[in-house]
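The following record pairs a protein chain with its ligand, NDP.
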Amino acid sequence: MTGTGHPTRPDGTPIDKEALRRRYLRERDKRLRPDGNDQYLQVTGRLAHYLEDPYTPRTEREPKTDHVTVAFIGGGFAGLVTGARLKEAGVGDVRIIEKGGDFGGTWYWNRYPGAQCDTASLVYMPLLEETGHMPTEKYAHAPEILEHCQRIGKHFGLYDNALFHTEVQDLRWDPERSRWTIRTNRGDTCTARFVAMGTGPLHVPKLPGIPGIESFRGHSFHTSRWDYGYTGGDPTGTPMDGLADKRVAIIGTGATAVQCVPHLAQACRELYVFQRTPSSVDVRNNRPTDPEWFTRIATPGWQRRWLENFTANQTAGMADEDLVMDGWTDIARRMRARVAALPPEDRTDMRKLLAAFEDSDHEKMEEIRARVDSVVEDPETARQLKAWYRQMCKRPCFHDEYLQSFNVPGTHLVDTDGKGVERITETGVVVADREYEVDCIIYASGFEVGTEHARRAGYDMTGRAGTKLSEYWAEGMRTLHGTHVHGFPNAFLVQPTQGANLISNVPHNLTESGRTIATIIKHALDHGHTEVEVTQEAEDAWVDLLVSGAGAIWRQRSPDCTPGYYNNEGQPTPRAKFNVGYPHGALAYFHYLDRWRTSGTFEGLEFR
Ligand code: NDP
């Protein structure tokens, strides 16, 4: 149905663009609230039990007081891929410090039923070629991804010196000895020549600040700390028979809820799904991997080819073929078709390009809304499940059983018309003055994003001049490549912002950063340098380049979006303009970074 002329609905009728824009703004306005990020509760004090690790008992150990060459904070994909590349480069002395009880990061914590990757496993799961693993499904489920993290840890010897259930509380540059001092909540005071950090964007659970939340007398937990002891079942999909006689509320309908609601719908006596903003839920089409097909495609260098192809497909006009062929590449394919239909002289006109993107988006969202009608039997429920915003305003979801759950007897959508849950009582959840009595409340309420970096990380790194990172970034993030920060020698960040900023496949950002950091550290060690730091000029030039790009234009438009963590809950902040990527696109960034890294001169870095 992808058109190149006036955008149309799946039934061929023209879309009234003005009417749709007005509808989107009306729906956004319903959801705007003055308290922005402050509407959420920080999970501390009396709520701290929501953070407890239900998966691995904590083991006692002696505090560490030793020195390592590289310390990595975070044992998720970022730490694993960087650690792996360091080991490959011959830097053996690597310590990963992780707050969970094992490697895995987001996949350690998120073991809720139905959890699976939303990006195709062949490009999402890192180091498949190096570890020889064939993902069993196009979108692997969480237990397989967690096991893969452990596989990487074992394959590259990263368990040897790792510290689990350990949270960094202080990180300070020691200029006398050119090294970092690391203090943790386990009494460790160790040092490292280099530190790298991959603490992840979504790892601190948040709770909605619903009045009465602490008064509930029934059972409750956050999706990232799933209580299988209560629900029965396990992450592999064993039915949750503990819920057979239970009335359960789930609060939130984001990407997490979309994946676990189908399992709850099958298990609970009654399930109430409390919705503030519907997710857009497109087709999933998961399937097992055919081993014969995999053997044919898995020739040397295959994963890099697939990564590059997937990323190329996210960049308008760049890809001849589409290896992954899924919802993400479909979004980009449609945009490319729209851009290709423009007269050549218009293809560099940002206004015309944005209009083409909007047309393509309108068609896609109309299809997603039509899908709701075709699946959900009750017309009123179907009406309430439709998302009225542009697809990239919120995290796009893909699922083939979520919408169907609302046809299961005993599963009820409780739409709050953008207002959110009104109140929680000792016995239930209140919306529009009606109390829904439940035995258990599951919070699918997401993770802190817009709060201060130091609050989420748990420490505020102190650099060369005694400056804290939070002070240096008071006006917004400043880095070279999203990795190096002036004033913070021998420190590296592993995350997408100010680099490729490829959100459809976050691990691709991380693997490239890991490779780069390993190359730089190896270079420093081989040449006897004790310090490496980005110059002020190089950092400034990089930030200037980023804020002048198209990503910055999209950021300015994001206040039109329905509130969420993508747009700081609808509250524009001057700092948001720095949360962008390379202006020429993700693929161009990876090529640029590859040239920069392999040149061996690392322009912009100073080695001492
Ligand atoms: P989200 O932040 O996306 O969703 C939180 C949900 O809670 C939203 O639906 C929100 O509504 C709702 N909510 C918040 N406050 C209230 C309230 N007072 N009353 C009612 N509802 C409320 O969290 P998720 O855990 O779903 O997802 C977070 C991110 O994690 C995703 O965006 C994605 O990046 C990642 N993820 C990735 C997956 C994958 O790749 N497979 C799977 C799951 C998550 P509202 O929208 O109105 O704010």
